[in-house]
Amino acid sequence: MHGAGHNLSCQLQNCGRFTEGAGRCAGGEQCEQMWALLKALAARLRFMSPDRRQDLLSCKFADIQEHKHEKLVQHLQATVKKTIELKSGYQQELAKIQQGALADGIEVEDAVQSFVSCHLSARSEEDLPWEAKYVETLLK
User: Fold this and answer.
1) Predicted confidence (pLDDT) per residue in 9-49, tens digit
2) Rounded CA gap, 108 and 64, in Å?
3) Which residues lie closer than 8 Å to 84 by C-beta, 6 or more apart?
4) At what angle are helices 30-38 and 50-103 packed, to 10 degrees?
């Protein structure tokens, strides 16, 4: 699915990146990537009987699945490690901001409410990040 070439409503309905339960793919071109993996078999498949063609495709899909499972564990471990590092950094940054606010006599809760009312409510729809537009479209 060429997600970027379509409007947001179409992307939310059809693009694999926004489909619940679908794995995230870096390029967003899941079908094309699958065809690229099968391309090497084309010459052999052309002259096979239907039964042998099905057997070969089944074996190839099993190999692709096994490879993806092997890479999935490595990817998840790296993602968890990166997430933990980011969380730790954000927590340290937040603690510094809170300490600075308390030293200046600013109540953190009041500052948050002031920021939200000042910055987020005054934004036009065009200024919203894609994530906010995505949520708004889902809620409609």
Assistant:
1) 777 777 666 666 666 555 556 778 888 888 888 888 888 99
2) 51
3) none
4) 140
Query: What per-residue confidence (pLDDT) applies to 43?
Result: 87
For the entire predicted model, the pTM comes to 0.41
Token pair in block for residue 65: 């699945």
Please give the full DSSP string across 2-14, using - where no structure is assigned: -GGGS-HHHHHHH
Q: Which residue has the tokens 């057997």?
A: 55
- Please give the pLDDT value at position 78: 92
Are the C-beta atoms of residues 28 and 15 closer than 8 Å to each other? yes
| Rounded (10°) CA dihedral 10, 15, 18, 23 | 170
Convert the pLDDT of each residue in 94-126 to its tens digit: 888 888 888 888 887 777 777 667 665 555 666
What distances in angstroms separate CA 77 from CA 17, 72, 81, 95, one per listed residue?
Answer: 21, 9, 6, 27
Question: What six digits make up the tokens of 102?
Answer: 């308390």
CA distance linking residue 99 with residue 93, whole number of Å: 10
Tokens 């500052």: give the residue: 111
